[in-house]
Amino acid sequence: MNAREDLVVDLSTFEGTKTLALTIERPFPHEVDNTAPIEIAITIMKAAASVVVQGNVKTKIKTECDRCLAELEIPVNGSVEATYLSENDKDIVQSEGHIESLENLFLLTGDLLDLSDRVLEAIIVEVPQKVLCEESCRGLCPCCGINLNDDPDHECSKREETLDKWHQKLNDLKKSVSS
């Protein structure tokens, strides 16, 4: 049984509420590079017209700094929130005009509920848009690519290469201000 199969729940096997507590090593090897097992705690509540899923997902993922490209590990603590409606119930809610205002609403077909997309979503949403190794990261030299955190006094010899007109005027202005 692979790790993703652990995230498929047969809704016909229980009534009311079911708690799912799992620790999975690498269920999404192509989407997320997790360095710690993914801890999943989810509650599934069945009602007459819907299935409500709530819980959280914890792990650590490997990524890189957006400025200096250093490899780093960041903790992820995401939440899972979803409501599943059957085909018939979807039509009723849609006819009343409320379906557009509902977030995290999904269509349920059959008795098997695959939670892998919700778990993956909980991880991805928690990764910051801009990941930095530290707030004061200086990044890479734009000319030679050396990590400026390792060499803060770096003076690039390639800097003197021909600049376009706009950058040349900016460079001239910078020299006149510093003189």
Describe it for me?
The protein has helices at about 85-95, 115-125, 165-179, and strands at about 10, 15-25, 40-45, 50-65, 70-85, 105-110, 110-115. It has about 180 residues and is α+β, with helices and mostly antiparallel strands. The protein folds into 2 domains: about 5-125, no CATH class; about 140-179, no CATH class. It has a 5-stranded mixed beta sheet with strand order 2-3-4-5-6. α1 links the parallel β5 and β6.
Query: Could you say how many structural domains there are in total?
Result: 2
**Inertia-based shape:** elongated
H-E order:
EEEEEHEEHH
Strand content: 25-35%
Termini separation comes to: 70 Å
Report the C-alpha radius of gyration, rounded.
Answer: 25 Å
Report the biggest beta sheet as strand number plus sense, adding barrel if it closes: 5 strands, mixed
Number of helices: 3
Tell me the number of strands: 7
Name the average pLDDT: 86
Please estimate the helix content.
10-25%
Structural class: alpha+beta
Uncertain residue segments: none
Strand ordering within the main sheet: 2-3-4-5-6
